[in-house]
Design a protein that fits this description.
By secondary structure, this protein is an alpha/beta fold. The protein has helices spanning 43-56, 89-94, 100-112, 115-126, 145-155, 212-219, 239-250, 257-277, 287-297, 302-309, 320-326, 329-353, 361-377, 390-400; strands spanning 10-14, 62-67, 130-134, 165-168, 171-174, 178-181, 199-202, 205-208, 404-407, 413-418, 421-426, 446-452, 461-469, 472-478. It folds into 2 domains: 10-208 and 282-315 and 380-478, 4-Layer Sandwich (Purple Acid Phosphatase, chain A, domain 2); 329-377, no CATH class. Helix 1 runs parallel beside helix 4, helix 3 (100-112) packs parallel to helix 5 (145-155) and helix 12 (329-353) packs antiparallel against helix 13 (361-377).
Amino acid sequence: MSDIFKYSTHTAIISDLHLTEEEPVNTKYPLWKKYKTKQFFFDDILADFLKHIEERALGQSVELILNGDIFDFDSVVSIPHEPTFRVSWLEKKRGLEPKSDKAKYKIRKILKDHQEFVQALGSFIKRGNKVIFVIGNHDLELHFPDVQAEIREQLKLLPRDQEKVRFVEWFYISNQDTLVEHGNQYDPYCQCEDPVNPFVKGYNNIYLKLPFGNIACRYIMNGLGFFNPHTDNNYIMTMKDYVVIFLRYMARAQPLLVLTWFGGAVLTLQRTVQDRIAAPLRNAFTIEDRIQKMAEKANAEPRMIREMKELIVPPASSNPILIARELWLDRAFLIILALVIIFYIFTALKAAFGISLFWSFLPATLFLPFFLFYSRSVMSMVSSYKEPDDRILAMTAVITKVKRVIYGHTHHTRHEIIGAVEHLNSGTWSPAFEDIEYKKPIEQRNFIWISPHEASKEAGRRAELLKFEKNIKPRSDVTQA
C-alpha cells in the first residue's frame, strides 16, 4: 500500500455532487425531472474549481477528497439497448438493481454524460495531485471493484498515476488531523448497515444491501418526477401541501399519481424488510484481512474500524412500522380498512333492509376528521436524523485521534466548534431548490480548504469553509472557528 496518502499539506473537500445521467427536457411538462437536465450540469465549474485549488496550493500537490454522494446511482433509470444481463420489468421502470455488472453500466452512463469533469479530474491527477473517493449512501455501488476499475479506466491515467486514486469504504483520516466521512452511518434511514460486509448473497448472484432511503428513491422518487430528491422539504410535506401541488402541477401529467406512489411505497417496504432479513456475505477466514485493508486505505488502525462500527446507529429497516409510517402506508391502509368495513356493513344492511348504499357516505364523512387528526399527528423523522449527534462527533474524534471532523450528507454548510472538536460540512453542489419551480436555489458550491497556518506561523493546519464562484475569487463564508 502506497504511503503517499499519509501526509498532505493542502486538502480540498467537496461532497454531494449527485452526478447522474442526463434527462432530456420534457417539452410538454418542463418540470419533469428538471434537476437531471443538462442546464443544471456543472462540469465546467468543477473543472475550473480543480484549477483553482491548484492555484491556492502555490505549486504544491493537492489532496482532493470527494466526500460521498459524488455519483447518484439511485437516479439512473436507463438500461442498455442490448443488455448482457437479465432486466426485470421493475428495473425497466425504476432502474437497475445494485449488482456488479449493472452498477458498471450505470457508472459508464454517468461518466459518459459528464465527460468534461472526467477529463478535468484525470488531468488534475496527472499533474501530481491525488484523489480520494469516500463512499456515501447514493454511491454505495462504488463498493464493487468493477465500478472502481471502470472509473480508473475512464480517467485514462498512466500506470504511475493509478496509485494516486483511492476508494475508501467509509471514512478517511487526512494528515492525522482530520476525519472525513460522509455522515450517513449515523442516519438510520441512509446508513450502510455493515460497511465492512456490504454485500448479500441472492439467488445465483451477489448484490449490495441498500438502506431504506435509497430504496425509496429508486422505487418512489424515480416515478414521481415532479419532486426534487435533493431537498427534503420538496417531498416531505403535509397532506394539504401534497393536494395543492398535485392539483397545480401534476393532475394533468400524472392523474394516477396516487397509484404510482402506493405501488412504489409497497415495493419499498417489501424490499426494505427483505434486505433487512438477508444476512451479509461474510467470510470468517478473511475478515481480519478485510479490516486491515480498509484501515490502510483510510490511514487508520484496524481497531478504529471496529470501534467506529460500534457507533453506527440501528437501521430504520429494523422497525417496519416506522418505515410504513414514513411511506404514508399506515394512512393508506387505514383509509382502505375503513372503506372496506363501511362497504360490507352497508352491503349487509341493503340486503337485509333495502337501505341505499348512498348512506355509506355518512360514516365515511364522519371518519374524515379523525383521519385528518391522525395524519397531522404523524411527523416524519427523516430530517431530524440528518445532523450528527454531538456525542458521536466527540467519540469519532477520540477514536481516530483527530481534532477536526468533516461530514457531508445533510446538504447544509456548517463550521463550528462542538466541545473540543472542530466540525465542518461542505454542503452540496447538487441542483437543490426550495420550491418545485426551481426558482429558489439552496446555497451551493462550497468547499473546505485545509492548509498550514501561514499568517500566524502556528503549527498544524487550519480549515476554512469557502464558496467557489466561477471566474470569481472565492470568499470565505465562515471564518475559522
